[in-house]
Amino acid sequence: MTDRAAVCSVCWRHCRIREGQLGWCGARTVRDGRVIPDNYGKLTSLALDPIEKKPLSFFHPGTMILSAGSYGCNMACPFCQNFEIAREKGAGRYSRMFSPDELVERALAYRSRGNIGIAFTYNEPLVGYEFIRDTARLARKENLEAVVVTNGQIEEEPLRELLPLISAWNIDLKAFTEEGYKRLGGRLQETLRTIRLTQEVSHVEVTTLVVPGLSDGEEDMKREAEFLASLDPALPLHLSRYFPCYQYDVPATPKETLFRLKEIAEESLERVVLGNI
Ligand code: SF4
């Protein structure tokens, strides 16, 4: 009997998936011996948002962007704000099927309301990178911008397919230690590589959610800012305030911590923005 399992190489997990089963992220499956995105075009959320909400503060400020989310994520943050769609296994929650053409058409229809393009966001979009690639190709022909909001956990090969198609990225840098990433089911080095490769060719802003006991260390912030500044001192860093959510219920980050970390980051970086404060 043939074992029709196949290995997914989109992120470091390299899941071995059996025919018809789902990978760890809940977004990819195997059909006829090939790994395919189970969540292709299956949107759970679609909204016209201010671009600052992504957050992107230095990319067409004052405009709107059509923001689309599907389901699945390859990390397991206990304070996830979108856990209903990020941790959903399979297609249970998607509300509508969109082809790349249909999504581009919708984005064009919103131009009169200030829309500049399409943002792939809400769940972890890169676990379904093929839908981003196909939609961004069409969007580009219509002079629409494509934006990705991601945890950066993607292998180099699929990332390189997207690089020429994406105008702007917001990348979460969730902690500056491998130990911190391990607690969240990710790998620091994979995100650092994504930041490095994307900022060579696109506009990139980085977000760190400052979580007590995970990403509020002053020494870690100093090293994080130095790393980002080594790529580009003008690279924007958003420091966002954590509030209790999902399975994590330590009290909200004190505002003073955010102010102190901003001062430290500003020793290396020119643009540090506080969020949720
Ligand atoms: S993208 Fe999903 S299926 Fe593929 S290796 Fe990562 S977790 Fe596994």
Explain the overall architecture.
The protein has one domain (40-275): Aldolase class I (TIM Barrel). The protein has eight helices and 14 strands. The radius of gyration is 18 Å and the shape is globular. Strands 6-7-9-10-11-12-13-14 form an eight-stranded mixed beta sheet. Strands 1-2 form a two-stranded antiparallel sheet. The protein starts with 5 loop residues before the first strand and ends with a strand. The mean pLDDT is 95. It has 277 residues and is α/β, with parallel strands linked by helices. It binds iron/sulfur cluster. Iron/sulfur cluster (SF4) binds next to loops.
- The sequence of SSEs as H and E is EEEEEEEHEHEHEHEHHEHEHE
Q: List each distinct ligand once.
A: iron/sulfur cluster
How large is the radius of gyration? 18 Å
CATH class: Alpha Beta
- How would you write the strand order of the largest sheet? 6-7-9-10-11-12-13-14
Largest sheet: 8 strands, mixed
Number of helices: 8
Fourth-level CATH superfamily:
Aldolase class I
Q: Structural class of the helix and strand makeup? A: alpha/beta
Uncertain segments of ≥5 residues (pLDDT<50)?
Answer: none
Shape estimate: globular
The total tally of domains equals: 1
- What portion of residues belong to β-strands? 15-25%
Level of helix content?
Answer: 25-40%
Q: How many strands appear in the DSSP assignment?
A: 14
On the 0-100 scale, what is the average pLDDT? 95
CATH architecture heading: Alpha-Beta Barrel
Task: Give the CATH topology.
Answer: TIM Barrel
N/C terminus separation: 59 Å
